[in-house]
Amino acid sequence: MNTLILALFKSGDKLKLSSVCHLLNGKRTASVLTFGFFQDSLSFFGLFPTMTLEFLEKSCIGLSAKGLLSREGDHFVITEKGANLLSNQGTQLASMFDGVTYSRTAQSFFELLLFATQVVSNASYQESNYIPIDSNNFHHYQVKRWYAKHKVSSSFIADFYEEWQRLVLAIPEEKRRGLVAMLSGYTQVGQTFDQVFYQTEQYQNKLENYLAKTTLQHALIKEVTQFEKDYPLFNSLYGILLENAGNHSASETYRLSKEGHSIEFIKHKRKLKESTIVDHIIEGLVLDDTPLYSLYLPDDSKRYFEQYLSENSDFQKWRFREVVVDKSHSFLSFRTYQIMKEKERRSRAN
Q1: What is the pTM of this model?
Q2: Where does the Helicase Helix-turn-helix domain start and stop, copy by copy (predicted)?
Q3: pLDDT digits over 48-93, tens only?
Q4: Is 71 helix (H, G, I), strand (E, B) or coil?
Q5: According to a count of CB atoms within 10 Å of the terminal CB, is the N or C end of the chain lower?
Q6: Residue 135 belongs to what domain range?
Q7: What is the pLDDT of residues 106-130, one digit of tens each?
Q8: Where among 245, 271, 303 does a domain terminate?
Q9: Which of 285, 331, 325, 332 is nearest to 308 (CA)?
Q10: Backbone torsions φ then ψ of 76, nearest 5 degrees
Q11: Which three-class secondary structure state does DSSP give residue 8?
């Protein structure tokens, strides 16, 4: 956990703990997402939904006592000692998670997949009299819908098992046996994650156990969604889950704006406040791999910010009221420019 907290401060910036806590909680607002984006910490978004500011502060104070963080009021900054420790231990940490994409769905998808496996296995033996491993009635409804859609295919069961074989081989070898042990089916009840992994000393700390479980869940869902053609049945199940997860309001607003519709049009069509629409667009710009910056960044605003950049190069730390002293440029154009420059910087670095 210490390494994870240090990773949140890797930029070397002074960070306010409340912002860090909101990020770990998964507070899906434009300001939190932008904060996570500029800190390159969106992979940790939503990893700890119940994290409290008090617990985080206590952890940071402990790291300060070890000389790994330095406290300045309600802000903390990583020290040289902390940065050195992080470079040795935390280089792969961020790649283990994708919280901004999967924090709301990873656990539910894993549970649905295990339950669907039990359903398919028993169906292959024409067995209907068994105790479901999942007591969530909504999961029953989702899997029932999914199964009814695919059971008509003669190759459905074989295809389902083939996707499982492919998925097991795609995860790290040390996790494969444990994952298979969690599968339930005809005359077999799988073990829980704790039963499988808590037996090893590495995971006997509850926090480490939770992180290990989250890492596995993110690895599975990332494999399935990134290689859709290899997992059509699993992606179909994920699609049913997505119908009731995620920020559909924000994605719908961003879709309309990217199609070229004005904020005024969206405001009337979706009955939203202008500030909410701006937040939705900013969220979309942060998460979109192919954003259309010109829709939100007029030429005159771009020229203005380019001129300001020539004298103030640290664009991440710009404050709107300091950069735009009158109302000649919108907050949306200001934030769009910042996001554009940061993505350009990362593209050059890669």
Answers
A1: 0.86
A2: 249-295
A3: 999 999 999 999 999 999 999 999 988 999 999 999 988 866 557 7
A4: strand
A5: C
A6: 105-245
A7: 999 999 999 999 999 999 999 999 9
A8: 245
A9: 325
A10: -130, 150
A11: helix
